[in-house]
Write a structure and sequence with these properties.
By secondary structure, the chain is α+β, with helices and mostly antiparallel strands. The chain has three helices and five strands, in the order βααββαββ.
């Protein structure tokens, strides 16, 4: 069974499991793909990061709800060979 693509990227089963288990909204993943800072890690692997300031911009522009991002300080996507591998949130006292 083929997994659905997300914004033109292939996905893995692990990616969808992590989104569900961590209750990460699809709008946050899309925002990260469009506005995130790309950091090359290895030859075919990249990390896309959205920090607290970018998350605040997304909330102020109406793309995301503040209630979904309580205490979130950053959101990170891992991409390997054009596939979304995993995603996770970092939390802290200085989050939204």
């Amino acid at each position: 069974m083929a997994l659905p693509q997300f914004e033109g990227f292939d996905t893995t089963q692990h990616f969808w499991e992590q989104m569900r288990s961590r209750r990460i909204p699809e709008a946050l993943v899309a925002w990260c793909l469009y506005k995130g800072k790309v950091i090359r890690r290895k030859m075919n692997e990249s990390k896309i990061r959205v920090g607290r300031n970018e998350l605040q911009d997304a909330v102020s522009q109406g793309y995301l709800n503040r209630e979904e991002l309580v205490a979130v300080t950053e959101f990170i996507l891992i991409i390997n060979q054009g596939r979304l591998i995993t995603c996770f949130l970092n939390f802290g006292d200085t989050g939204l």
